[in-house]
Amino acid sequence: MGRVGIVGHREKHPGSFDIVHVKDAVGHSFATR
Questions:
Q1: Residue 5 CB neighbours (<10 A)
Q2: What are the boundaries of each domain within the chain?
Q3: Nearest Cα residue to 3 out of 14, 27, 13, 11
Q4: CB–CB of 21/31 below 8 Å?
Q5: Contact yes or no for 22/7 (Cβ under 8 A)
Q6: DSSP assignment string, 8-26
Q7: How far is CA 29 from CA 8, 14, 15, 20, 26, in A?
Q8: pLDDT confidence band for 3 (50 / 70 / 90)
Q9: What is the pLDDT of residues 4-26, one digit of tens each?
Q10: Pairing state of beta strands 18-24 and 5-12?
């Protein structure tokens, strides 16, 4: 994605994946695996 941000919190999903909530410098927040 090319965006750099601050990790807000990480959701642990056992055995599958983690969802990481990120807020970037512009103030947009998004989630990624």
A1: 18
A2: 1-33
A3: 27
A4: yes
A5: yes
A6: EEEEE-TTS-EEEEEEETT
A7: 9, 24, 25, 10, 9
A8: low
A9: 666 666 667 677 777 787 777 77
A10: antiparallel
Of 4, 31, 6, 12, the residue nearest 20 (C-alpha) = 31
Which distant-in-sequence residues (6+ apart) come within 8 Å of 26 by Cβ?
none
State the pTM of this model: 0.33
How many residues belong to the chain?
33
With contact defined as beta carbons under 8 Å apart, do 9 and 18 qualify?
no
Q: What is the CATH number of domain 1-33?
A: 2.30.30.30
